[in-house]
Amino acid sequence: MSKTSRKWILAALITIFLALLAVSVRHNIAYQLGNRPDFSLSKRVQRTKNGILVFSFHRVLNPTDIVKFDEKVSPNTQFHDFNENLPIFKQQMNYLHTHHVKVISIKQMIAMAHSNRPIRGKYVVITFDDIDRTSIDNAYPVLKKLHYPFTQSIITGNTGWYKQGTKLATWPAIQKLHREAGNQVTFGVHTNRMHYLVDGGIPVFNVPANFSRFKRDYATSQDVLKEKIGYKSPIFTYPYGSGNFQVQKFLDTRPGLKVVLTLNDGIVTNHSNLKQTPRIIVNTYSWPSIKAWINN
C-alpha cells in the first residue's frame, strides 16, 4: 500500500469518527431540548413582562486558535450549542447589568416563587451543568466582578473526568471555589454516575428497569456532596433536561429537595412548580430571544 493511500485511509477514518461523534452529540441535544424545535425562548415567554428566567450554561471557553479551528471544522455541534466563548459571556453578563436585570440566587428564587406576592420585574438565575473546569477558570472571575450569584450542578461520581471535549473540575478545585465564592455559589446534584445515554439515545435514568438504581444513585449523590461540600443540596438538575413520570414522582417526594431544574420552556412566577423549573440554554442561537424578553 502506498504512502498516499495510507493517508487517504487515515483521513477517511477520521472523517467517519467525527461523523459518528456528531450523531452522538445530536442525540444529546435532542434530549436537552425536549420537544422544542430550537434553543430560543417561545414567543409566549418572550412576551412575558414579569418573572425569573433561569439560564443554563455548560462551558465558557477562551477563544484560542485551537478552539476557533475546532469550531470551524468539527461536526461536533457542542462547539456551538453547549459552549460559550468568554468574550461573548462577558458581553451577556454586562448586558444584564446595563439593562438593570437583577441576577438572583436560587435561594432568592425559592423565596419569591413561594411568596403570596406577584413577581414584578425581570430577574435571572445563572446555573452551570456538569461543573466543567472552564466554569470555574473562566466564568467565575466574571461573575465575581459583577457580584452575580450562581449555581453549579455536580455529577458527583464523575469529577475530574475528561469526555467529549469536557474536562470536569476535580473535587479540590470545587472545594476551592466553595471556599473562595462563599455564599455566591450554590451546589446542586446532577446524579452520581447516571449522566449518559443508552441504546436509542435514552437517558439511562429514564429506563424503567433502572428506576431502583436511580433512587440509589440520587441518595449517593447527596451523600457525596455532603461529604465533600458540607451539605445536602435542595437542588437536583436533570441530565438531558427531563425525567419520566416515575422519576419525577420520586423527586417530588424527596425531603429537603426544593428545586428540580429541567430544560422545559418557560419562566418562573409565584405560581410555578419549582420541582419542574424551566431553563434556557444560553448560546448564540438563544441569546436574541433572551434579549427580546429583556427589552419587552
TrEMBL record:
Its main location: secreted. GO terms for biological process: xylan catabolic process. GO terms for cellular component: extracellular region. Keywords: Carbohydrate metabolism, Glycosidase, Hydrolase, Polysaccharide degradation, Signal, Xylan degradation. It is found in: Secreted. Transmembrane segments: none annotated. Residues 122-296 form the NodB homology domain. The keyword Signal applies. Pfam families: Polysacc_deac_1 (PF01522). This is Polysaccharide deacetylase.
